[in-house]
Amino acid sequence: MRRLLSTGFVACAALVLARTAAAQDTTHVPEGVRVGINYTPGAQPGLVVIPGSGIDSVRAIVARDLDYSDRFKIIPVSDPGRGSAAGPINYGLYKALGADFAVELLDEGGKVTARLHDVARSVLANQQTATLPPPSDANFRLAVHVLSDEIVRWAAGTPGIAATRILFVQNGRIWQMDSDGYAARPLTPDGQTSLSPAWSPDGRRMAFTKLVQGRGGVFLQTLATGEVSELPGT
């Protein structure tokens, strides 16, 4: 909220300055107003993702999600900072590195336990055990993204957006990809001109425009089945 207020204040200030300058200089009246915004991010708490053995794919996705959330300053570490795999967390080490939080991911034999440690207070702040699909499952990455968003909520107070999926158009074809740019896959056939994709509120379908014989109707596609139907009156 602080960042949004700060950005909004800067934008309003820039707009006022631009209008004032235009009012003072009547010899060269521009066709439009250019607003310059200087974005200064607020203080970001330091965060480490504790290295470990096993579930490397989960750890890599979570670390990337937390980095891309723009809520934290990610501190890279190579030393797990603990005496053994089951030993206590070395809060002093992470505190010396400038970390406020430490994220620990444990393999629980088919399940993954995520733990958020409050380094400043040297306590376990929150934890959750999740059952994830196998890495070969199409929903594996989404399930990990959901876990990442929950970790962000624990640390920042509001969930992240890693579980968001993005629709985009490339060469007349609609594609879907994860928020981190991975797992891109086409949703419409090649050779068909499809435009303007939009998610349904439940995220299960998308609406888009398809050009057929010179006209563009609006179509609805169910993502799970690929079933496509044209909306009446379009």
Can you describe this structure in just a few lines?
This protein has 234 residues and is of the alpha+beta class.
Ends apart, CA distance between termini: 41 Å
Average the pLDDT over all residues and give the rounded result.
82
Strand order of the largest sheet: 2-1-3-4-5
Radius of gyration of CA atoms, rounded to a whole number: 24 Å
Question: What profile does the largest beta sheet have?
Answer: 5 strands, mixed
Described by the principal axes of the CA atoms, the overall outline is: elongated
Helix content: 25-40%
Structural class: alpha+beta
The number of helices is 4
Question: Segments where pLDDT lies below 50 for 5+ residues?
Answer: 1-30
How much of the sequence is in beta strands?
25-35%
Order of helices and strands: HEHEHEEEHEEEEEEE
Please count the beta strands (DSSP E, at least 2 residues each): 12
Written overview of the protein:
- The chain has 234 residues and is α+β, with helices and mostly antiparallel strands.
- The protein contains 4 helices and 12 strands; from the N terminus they run H-E-H-E-H-E-E-E-H-E-E-E-E-E-E-E.
- It has helices spanning 2-24, 56-68, 91-96, 140-156, and strands at 46-49, 73-74, 101-107, 111-118, 123-131, 165-170, 173-178, 185-186, 194-199, 205-212, 215-222, 228-230.
- The strands form 3 sheets. It has a 5-stranded mixed β-sheet, covered by helices on one side. Strands 9-10-11-12 form a 4-stranded antiparallel β-sheet, with no helix packed on it. A 3-stranded antiparallel β-sheet has the order 6-7-8, with no helix packed on it.
- Strand 3 (101-107) and strand 4 form a beta hairpin.
- Helix 2 packs across helix 4.
- Residues 1-30 have low confidence and may be disordered.
